């Protein structure tokens, strides 16, 4: 092979020429050229051809993908053949493998199908002695398993090779492959459980977590097989790595379905996890406890000690389920928790639903056992009667009424105001019922209170207010049929994956409309599972779920919103046509409800913005400092609206600028919260319905949008639509410029956009920009780049506006050059300032011109700065002819080093005007012969 026949052998190859000869390059790297008997290709030619393949794959992966089979063949040959067979030195071989692996990875990234069609060759590479070849094969196989699991015919060889490899990164890919393929190939993957269990003791934390995740995925498909190793898995329940523990607990959640008796043996380990600091492990331990309380009701009494410990450390909201199960089914042993439940119910550290559940559990205990709280406990509950949350008021009223039947004096002493006559004791109870209960739902209790109150104080107004919430005080449904029965029946139907699930889902849907909070809570949990497993089928019932998005009960409302978010892709029409519940949800006090509502609005705005354009003021009001994640989602909605209907946001420019100044910045703890929510395994547990924020987390991670807020994108689009907005809202722009560095950057961004649009009114801000340049903030890394861009933009439009500030700007320029000359971050600002000063000189009286010596130093900067400096010097030479000599020498030196003749216009002008034609000719002859 001759160099003049191969463009990829040139020292500076043309990529298009390489592309046209790609097949030739591949041919020269084919296995036969490494056969010693026929090898007539030099090592340098062989390496050049391989380099061409790698370069072409990186720059033109789509075209290179057609050569994927040859690439794999060559790579397999080179990595599996002996050194003698390959006729390669060790150095040649390593370089060849490295470049071919890079090419293969580039092709797989851009056109994965081109590589996935050759799984057999990739599997062969797993036996290569070159680590890089094995690593890239494992990486691509993991991608293929994720996208094309059915194409893996009997993947036991791949799993055996990857999981048993000596390289940790390859073992990680093996664990990912096992997790991905277990649903498609359960028998083959399950055979590797012993290896995965061994990896749970690996030194690498990431590998351990991936192995645990794979075991969890297998436990979903074949729980009985994983259950055989329950003892080995249980040994990891107290591991020091909280995330790893949380994955093991997920496995136990699945194993509880097939052998809950065995899981009860780890009750102490569950208790220990409930007291630890890792949030995900605590939450999942609570879910596991809840699952056990549903599956093994006869063992509920043994939970008393565990629940007591967990309640005292306020560990997880999931405790409300075992607490209610215990109180409802085994109230006698639950009396040990009685006062503790009510103490926790008065605390602010629990969600409102959980506090309400604790009070209702106490109500059940009292009803069944005649146990009553101490007077001090009743006293602590009294402030809840004035709570703005009707459901909490109702729960306390129910408890008071039940206790009143057993120990009336305790209740009367608690409710009687100082100095109040005993004959008026029950007036307070009647008032509570009227304000908190719906008349129809609470008729028995209402009549009882009314009759007792009338006998002592006369008639009582029992008309319920319009805002009353619904509650079924006696929870008769829960006594007629345990919620776990409905739950288990529906779960079994979904796991059968047969047509009977249709009838089961219909039955669950029928429960959604019942006038019972307990019924609805159980039904919506089951329907959530159905929406995950059968989204198209569940989406047919989206109207019923939408009815619950305005439920007065937080947990039901939150769950309904999340289900809508899950199913909107399958049935968007009713959601898009009915945005009101989600707008209302933006102001809800529950964080997860707000976030679910906000992200559902994002789903709506991505499809249709006409309905949302009419409620822009509501959306803007929902952007609040303390509601970071939901506020970001709302800003995405506003950006969608301005893209299709900017007129609707024009009148709201002022409020938008005010919201931009809010310190809407998520700290690490906020992101930690997001990570704990973004966990599909957790949300798949039927007793843990929390909001999944995959799309929001993606958005927040994309382009580090904590600094680049979507609201900024909306405002940029708005200012592009109407460039006069910066002048109309000059106060808002000035507030940004005078704010923190982040605000200043955004204000400059808007001004620069306005200037680039040719808006002359931006001259109004010349003083503000000049003043900013004189401050230390101008050198802040967050501000400098945007300030430089803004200066370039205003220079083209309004240079005359800066003439009064020229002296100060020059002084500031010299100061920056003196103090920050070595800082490349400030070169852009220096260049922009030079350009502005140069433009100002054209508008100035020559008598005000500065002396040339002040600008000589800037010839040492890059060509852009030198271009502006020579332009300035050329204009000053007539005013200061005596200083022309020094300037001429500096410019000649700069001309000799300049890389771009197009930048020499100012130099030519200067040298011509100073009569230095010979110097000019000499400079061009020596430095720019071309």
UniProtKB/TrEMBL annotation:
InterPro entries from the UniProt entry: ARM-like (IPR011989), ARM-type_fold (IPR016024)
- Database matches in SUPFAM superfamilies: ARM repeat (SSF48371)
Name used for this protein in its record: HEAT repeat-containing protein
């Amino acid at each position: 092979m001759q160099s003049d026949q191969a463009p990829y052998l040139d020292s500076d190859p043309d990529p298009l020429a390489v592309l046209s000869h790609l097949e030739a390059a591949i041919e020269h790297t084919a296995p036969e050229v490494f056969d010693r008997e026929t090898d007539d290709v030099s090592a340098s030619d062989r390496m050049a051809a391989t380099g061409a393949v790698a370069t072409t794959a990186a720059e033109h992966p789509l075209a290179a993908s057609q050569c994927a089979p040859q690439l794999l063949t060559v790579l397999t040959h080179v990595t599996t053949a002996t050194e003698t067979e390959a006729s390669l030195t060790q150095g040649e071989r390593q370089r060849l493998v490295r470049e071919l692996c890079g090419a293969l990875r580039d092709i797989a990234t851009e056109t994965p199908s081109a590589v996935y069609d050759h799984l057999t060759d990739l599997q062969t590479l797993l036996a290569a002695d070159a680590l890089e070849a094995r690593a890239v094969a494992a990486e691509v196989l993991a991608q293929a398993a994720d996208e094309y699991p059915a194409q893996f015919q009997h993947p036991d060889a791949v799993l055996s090779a990857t999981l048993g490899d000596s390289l940790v990164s390859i073992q990680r890919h093996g664990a990912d492959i096992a997790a991905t393929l277990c649903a498609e190939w359960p028998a083959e993957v399950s055979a590797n459980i012993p290896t995965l269990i061994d990896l749970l003791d690996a030194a690498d934390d990431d590998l351990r977590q991936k192995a645990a995740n794979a075991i969890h995925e297998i436990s979903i498909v074949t729980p009985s097989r994983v259950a055989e190793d329950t003892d080995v898995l249980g040994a990891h329940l107290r591991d020091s790595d909280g995330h790893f523990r949380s994955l093991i607990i997920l496995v136990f959640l699945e194993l509880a379905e097939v052998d809950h008796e065995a899981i009860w043996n780890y009750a102490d380990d569950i208790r220990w996890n409930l007291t630890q600091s890792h949030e995900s492990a605590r939450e999942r331990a609570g879910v596991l406890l809840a699952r056990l309380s549903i599956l093994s009701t006869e063992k509920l009494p043994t939970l008393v000690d565990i629940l007591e410990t967990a309640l005292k450390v306020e560990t997880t909201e999931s405790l409300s389920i075992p607490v209610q199960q215990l109180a409802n089914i085994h109230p006698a042993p639950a009396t040990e928790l009685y006062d503790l439940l009510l103490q926790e119910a008065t605390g602010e550290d629990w969600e409102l639903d959980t506090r309400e559940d604790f009070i209702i559990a106490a109500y059940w205990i009292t009803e069944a056992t005649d146990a009553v709280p101490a007077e001090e406990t009743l006293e602590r509950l009294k402030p809840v009667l004035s709570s703005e949350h009707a459901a909490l008021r109702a729960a306390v009223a129910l408890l008071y009424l039940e206790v009143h039947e057993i120990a009336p004096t305790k209740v009367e002493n608690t409710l009687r105001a100082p100095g109040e006559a005993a004959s008026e004791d029950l007036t307070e109870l009647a008032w509570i019922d009227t304000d908190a209960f719906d008349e129809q739902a609470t008729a028995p209790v209402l009549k009882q209170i009314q009759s007792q109150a009338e006998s002592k104080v006369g008639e009582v107004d029992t008309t319920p207010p319009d805002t009353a919430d619904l509650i079924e005080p006696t929870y008769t449904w829960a006594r007629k049929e345990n919620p776990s029965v409905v739950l288990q029946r529906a779960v079994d139907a979904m796991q059968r994956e047969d047509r009977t699930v249709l009838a089961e889902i219909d039955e669950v849907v029928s429960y959604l409309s019942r006038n019972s909070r307990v019924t609805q809570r159980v039904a919506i949990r089951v329907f959530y599972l159905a929406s995950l497993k059968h989204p198209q089928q569940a989406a047919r019932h989206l109207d019923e779920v939408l009815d619950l998005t305005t439920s007065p009960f937080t947990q039901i409302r939150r769950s309904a919103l999340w289900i809508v978010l899950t199913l909107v892709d399958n049935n968007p029409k009713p959601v898009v046509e009915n945005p009101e519940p989600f707008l209302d949800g933006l102001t809800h006090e529950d964080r997860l409800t707000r976030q679910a509502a906000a992200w559902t609005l994002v789903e709506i705005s991505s499809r249709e913005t006409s309905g949302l354009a009419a409620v822009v003021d509501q959306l803007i009001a929902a952007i609040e400092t303390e509601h970071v994640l939901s506020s970001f989602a709302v800003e995405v909605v506003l950006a969608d609206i301005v893209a299709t209907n900017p007129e609707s946001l024009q009148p709201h420019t002022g409020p938008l600028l005010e919201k931009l100044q809010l310190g809407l910045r998520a700290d690490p703890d906020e992101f930690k919260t997001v990570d704990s929510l973004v966990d599909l395994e957790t949300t798949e547990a039927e007793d843990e319905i929390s909001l999944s924020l995959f799309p929001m987390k993606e958005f927040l991670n994309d382009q580090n949008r904590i600094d680049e807020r979507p609201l900024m994108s909306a405002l940029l689009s708005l200012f592009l639509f109407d460039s006069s907005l910066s002048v109309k809202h000059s106060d808002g722009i000035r507030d940004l410029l005078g704010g923190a560095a982040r605000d200043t950057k955004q204000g400059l961004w808007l001004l620069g956009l306005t200037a680039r649009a040719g808006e002359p009114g931006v001259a109004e801000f010349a003083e503000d920009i000049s003043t900013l340049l004189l401050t230390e903030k101008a050198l802040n890394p967050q501000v400098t780049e945007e300030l430089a861009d803004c200066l370039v933009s205003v220079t083209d439009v309004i240079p005359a506006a800066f003439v009064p500030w020229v002296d100060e700007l020059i002084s500031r320029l010299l100061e920056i050059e003196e103090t920050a000359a070595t800082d490349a971050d400030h070169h852009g600002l220096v260049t922009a300032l030079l350009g502005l000063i140069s433009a100002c000189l054209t508008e100035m009286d020559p008598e005000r011109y500065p002396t040339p010596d002040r600008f000589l130093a800037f010839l040492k900067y890059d060509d852009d700065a030198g271009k502006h400096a020579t332009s300035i010097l050329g204009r000053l030479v007539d005013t200061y002819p005596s200083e022309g000599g020094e300037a001429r020498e500096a410019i000649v030196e700069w001309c000799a080093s300049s890389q771009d003749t197009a930048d020499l216009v100012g130099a030519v002008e200067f040298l011509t005007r100073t009569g230095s034609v010979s110097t000019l000719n000499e400079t061009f002859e020596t430095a720019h012969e071309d």
